[in-house]
Amino acid sequence: MGSDSRLLLILPLILFGCSTIEKLGTNQTTSESNTERHEQLHSVLWLQTSVEYAGITKGAYALAALRMDEALSDTMWTASLEQLGSAAYASLPPAVVLDVDETVLDNSAFQARLVEDDLPYDGNIWNEWVMEEKAGSIPGALDFTRYAASKGVHVIYLTNREAGVETSTENNLRALGFPMNSGEQSVISKRERPEWGSSDKSSRRAFVSERYRVLLLIGDNYGDFTEEANGSLLERRRSSSNYASYWGKKWIVLPNPMYGTWERALFNYDYGASESEKIRLKRANLFTNR
Ligand SMILES: [Mg+2]
Predict the structure, then answer these.
(1) How confident is the model at residue 168 (pLDDT cuts 50, 70, 90)?
(2) Which one of 5, 58, 115, 266 is most buried, by most CB atoms within 10 A?
(3) At 36, is the pLDDT very low, low, confident or very high (cuts 50, 70, 90)?
(4) pLDDT confidence of 86, banded at 50, 70, 90?
(5) pLDDT for the residue 20
(6) Residue 180 Cα to ligand 1 middle (Å)
(7) Is 250 contained in some domain?
(8) CA-to-CA distance for 74 and 52, rounded, in angstroms?
(9) How far, in Å, CA of 176 to CA of 154, rounded?
(10) Domain region containing 214
(11) What is the CATH number of the domain that holds 68?
(12) Are 137 and 104 in contact (CB under 8 A)?
């Protein structure tokens, strides 16, 4: 047999072998990328391990305490857009309105489970997590809310957690030492009243605004401040710039790189899209300047 004939015999083996190895390699890479490149890996680790995150949230709450003192001495001060247009709020008792998740409660352990289990967010497993009552506290939140309570300021937790798990939310907050107003509603959940069925918090802010002068709004999501959160990226930027004087003064925002309206705007709120389509839509928003 000549060397050419031998090569012809060996060639399919080489090609088959190569393609098999190549396929195995590709499969390995694909399976690794599923578990090792979960979208939230960096954001969850940043929240859980970086000193920078805790530094930012403590700084935000230190600023909130200073602003609250300013607000207490100025009866015309209100952080609530729902209170604009009438001075009636000036005589109401003061309150600070805080969001719950990633504002006072740290749910990064839940997000870490999604990373470890390679799962997208799911409302049912979220509610199971809430009922475990294992959320931690966001650095700075406890000191601030206790300071507010010590000044006679009502502390209100306005959350998009469901009314059905409100007892768990209250238990979790209470166990961590967060002040809860005795005899008053402290936690205001979604669907607690028929007219509070939406994630849009404006109807619940209006409810609070009829009873308290709102000194500060504190949250990690634009929707914690205004219902104008749910627009396109451009609409959100335009809306936000209209409230330039509120940021860092009456509205205190905390960082949340894990989730929020900012993330949903990236895939145009298309909840029916597959995970890979959402990622494609997100990547289309990368700014590379080249
Ligand atoms: Mg939140």
Answers:
(1) very high
(2) 115
(3) low
(4) confident
(5) 35
(6) 18
(7) yes
(8) 33
(9) 18
(10) 38-259
(11) 3.40.50.1000
(12) yes
Gap from CA of 6 to ligand 1 centroid (Å): 69
Coil, strand, or helix at residue 106?
Answer: strand
CA of 4 to the centre of ligand 1 (A): 70
DSSP character string of 128-170: HHHHHT--EE-TTHHHHHHHHHHTT-EEEEEEEEEGGGHHHHH
**What does pTM read for this prediction?**
0.87
Q: How far is the CA of 264 from the centre of ligand 1 (A)?
A: 14
116 CA from centroid of ligand 1 (Å): 22
- Spatial contact of 217 and 224, defined as CB atoms under 8 Å apart: yes
β-pair type (105-106, 136-137): antiparallel
Distance 259 CA to ligand 1 centre (A): 9
- Written as one string, the DSSP assignment of 167-193 is HHHHHHHHHHT----TTS--EEEETSS
How far does the centroid of ligand 1 lie from the alpha carbon of residue 70, in Å? 25
Q: How far is the CA of 221 from the centre of ligand 1 (A)?
A: 6
Q: Is the pLDDT of residue 243 over 80?
A: yes
How far, in Å, from the CA of 86 to the mean position of ligand 1?
29
Q: How many helices (H) and strands (E) does the chain have?
A: 11, 7
Report CA(25)–ligand 1 centroid distance (Å).
41
